[in-house]
Design a protein that fits this description.
By secondary structure, the protein is α/β, with parallel strands linked by helices. It has helices at about 20-30, 50-55, 75-80, 90-100, 105-115, 125-130, 130-145, 170-180, 215-225, 255-265, 310-315, 330-340, 385-400; strands spanning about 5-10, 35-40, 65, 70, 85-90, 120, 145-150, 150-155, 160-165, 190-195, 200, 205-210, 230-235, 245-250, 270-275, 280-285, 300-305, 320-330, 345-350, 365, 365-370, 375-380, 380-385. The structure holds cytidine-5'-monophosphate (C5P).
């Protein structure tokens, strides 16, 4: 996420200052360290106490902290502290001061001293935004390398409709996050991942399941998000979960539940990585009530579950890339190749239960990657977090 990154948020006097509270929260949620510098005018729109509490740091407003002791707020230090200075909202007044260099407040003095990238999110009423001075000032900032987050069209606080609404905090935070993620072809891509086991109900208390923990799905989802992708993880009832803000998790129980979510998302995605250990069969009927113990033996009729990966393969468009997993116990490579072809995959991740430390219940795995041209890449036994990176590197390579 953004842990280790220092974000300085500048708040100037615009009604959109109420959104700064959400903005601070977004960055805290992403793990960044946050400080806030405000203009005097901004304090009429939102209380420094609100922003300081959310940022977990005192807010800076005046040059002088304590006139008696001579303690002052060091704008140079603030500017040097930040990895990114984001002025949101940026009022027309502060915009003009950024251009003219009129540093009669701490926010602008900090801007003049900042060495880090500076981003601004203008927010003002329709006619102020349309004014020639606003356009000229924004153009000058752009020419000087300031990154401008264009305001949105929509209803403005004055009741007018048009351009001037500050970009929404989640979108601003997402753009900053992508800025700090490494250069990857997965940046901005939509990825669908399945992970964990499925449980197929026998009755309300019993099920047919397997030992998958869901760790591989979670690690793949987090690794994709760290490379800037937007991830949907469809996860069975395994023990591993993720709290990554850019992974949306759908928790499901059975193969039919998983298929439903996959069918809702696959056509909107660029990449699918299906690592779930889906039960191949389910009880033909799940009893409504707990089945009582009676006879010495009992038969449960099973019916085949839908093959979710095969469905996604059958729907795959030319610009989509699909990855499947295969856990084999014999004739591994041959079976895996057949699976790759049958399910119309671009990449198959093979792991064998014959390799110690591979498969379910370990934090490690030993994989072979197989592509349609029969190209094999074998990897050593390694931590599953490292395996996730190997798989993503291979995908990135193919997508280049
Ligand atoms: O055919 P097999 O079950 O071995 O294939 C494994 C691959 O297919 C895995 O990627 C798994 O997630 C997927 N799969 C599926 N739906 C099933 C069975 C397997 O998506 N019903």
């Amino acid at each position: 996420m953004l842990s280790g990154k220092k974000i300085l948020i500048g708040v100037s006097g615009s009604i959109a200052a109420y959104k700064s509270a959400y903005l601070v929260r977004e960055f805290i949620r992403l793990g960044a360290e946050v400080k806030v510098v405000m203009t005097d005018a901004a304090t009429s729109f939102i209380a420094p106490l609100t922003l300081g509490t959310l940022a977990k740091n005192p807010v800076s407003i005046d040059f002088v902290k304590d006139s008696k002791s001579g303690e002052w707020e060091n704008h140079v230090e603030l500017g040097l502290w930040a990895d990114l200075f984001l002025i949101a909202p940026l009022s027309a007044n502060s915009l003009s001061k950024m251009v003219s260099g009129n540093s009669d407040n701490l926010l602008i003095a900090t801007y003049l001293s900042a060495k880090c990238p500076v981003w601004v999110a203008p927010a003002m009423d329709l006619d102020m935004f349309k004014h020639f001075s606003t356009g000229e000032n924004l153009q000058k900032l752009k020419e000087k390398g300031v990154h401008v987050l264009e305001p949105r069209e929509g209803e403005l606080a004055s009741g007018l409709e048009g351009k001037g609404r500050m970009e929404e905090p989640p979108e601003i935070a997402r753009a900053v996050y992508e800025y700090f993620t490494p250069n990857s072809i997965l940046k901005g891509k939509k990825v669908l991942i399945t992970g964990g086991p499925t449980y197929e109900a026998i009755d309300p208390v019993r099920f047919i399941g397997n030992h998958s923990s869901g760790l591989t799905g979670v690690l793949l989802a987090e690794a994709c998000a760290e490379r800037g992708a937007e991830v949907v993880l469809v996860s069975g009832p395994g023990s591993h979960k993720t709290k990554h803000p850019y992974v949306t998790t759908y928790s499901i129980t059975s193969a039919n539940d998983m298929l439903e979510v996959v069918q809702d998302h696959w056509n909107k995605c660029d990449l699918g990585i299906f690592s779930a250990a889906v039960a191949d069969y389910r009880p033909a009927e799940a009893a409504d009530q707990k089945i009582k113990k009676k006879e010495d033996d009992m038969l449960i009729r099973l019916v085949k579950n839908p093959d979710i990966l095969a469905w996604a393969g059958s729907q795959k468009k030319d610009d989509q890339y699909l990855v499947g997993f295969a856990l084999e116990t014999e004739n591994e490579e041959e079976h895996a190749r057949q699976k790759l072809e049958r399910k119309n995959l671009d990449l198959l991740v093979l792991n064998s239960l014959n390799d110690s430390g591979a498969g379910f219940g370990h934090s490690t795995n030993k994989i072979t990657l197989i592509r349609p041209n029969n190209n094999l890449t074998k990897f050593e036994l390694k931590e599953k977090s490292e395996m996730a990176k190997d798989i993503l590197n291979a995908i990135e390579n193919d997508l280049k």
